């Protein structure tokens, strides 16, 4: 297991490294950084499992670094360590895994790591049930066969959720994507429910119904259940880099913005 510690204060880095080493009984590699740029530069080489981040740092602060890390390594565990409690909401928005106030004691670290490890044990990495291809046209396969959809809009809903990389997407946002004219939101939400139900039926038919998640007014996908060229590319997979040729979900106009971001990486 590899752990990054990022804090602009060298003494804080060393103190946190020491307390982390006392909190974990297994063999680990802890690498400390006093700047966000150095940590980001090494991410492809070390591919850390856990990153402890200070928030208030010069240059790229911890919030920006956390976002960049999530883009490059979607599965990385992020734990904020800060002297300020004003960032709890931001931590939640970024879907970080833990939030500690300085000074973080051995007991504090043990508690947050115990929660992280408990989640891993409760939801061990399941076998992916879908093979998703985003480069070029968006296509999805189950057991080597393309997933069949009764409604083309149902496929587009799945495409947008894949592009969101596990983040929750509201029904209002989905309606804005599916319809340029957003004047009759009530009727559009009714249609959206029909498309989601159709998508669920298509996924159930190929044994992948658990991929689609719904929590209140938000839809998402369980990224652990899919293999995806886009996700592998963002994680720094060198082999996957050769498969991107400037096209991303090319049948959907809203995907042009993501394509531009990929071109700029």
Describe this structure in words.
This protein has 265 residues and is of the alpha/beta class. It folds into 2 domains: 2-122, Response regulator (Rossmann fold), CATH 3.40.50; 130-263, Arc Repressor Mutant, subunit A (Orthogonal Bundle). Helices cover 45% and strands 18% of the residues. It has 11 helices and 12 strands. The protein has helices at residues 10-23, 36-46, 62-72, 88-93, 106-122, 152-163, 171-178, 185-205, 229-234, 238-241, 256-263, and strands at 2-6, 29-33, 50-53, 77-82, 98-101, 130-133, 139-142, 145-146, 169-170, 212-215, 218-221, 226-228. The chain has a 5-stranded parallel β-sheet, with helices on both faces. The longest helix has 21 residues, at 185-205. The two termini are 27 Å apart. The mean pLDDT is 85.
Report the portion of residues in β strands.
15-25%
Q: How many angstroms separate the termini?
A: 27 Å
**What's the CATH architecture of the largest domain?**
Orthogonal Bundle
Total strand segments: 12
Top-tier CATH class of the largest domain = Mainly Alpha
Q: In the residues, how many domains can be counted?
A: 2
By CATH, the topology of the largest domain is: Arc Repressor Mutant, subunit A
Q: Report the structural category.
A: alpha/beta
Question: What sort of overall outline do the alpha carbons produce when their principal axes are compared?
Answer: elongated
With strands numbered from the N-terminus, the spatial order across the biggest sheet is: 2-1-3-4-5
The CATH superfamily name of the largest domain is Winged helix-like DNA-binding domain superfamily/Winged helix DNA-binding domain
Largest sheet: 5 strands, parallel
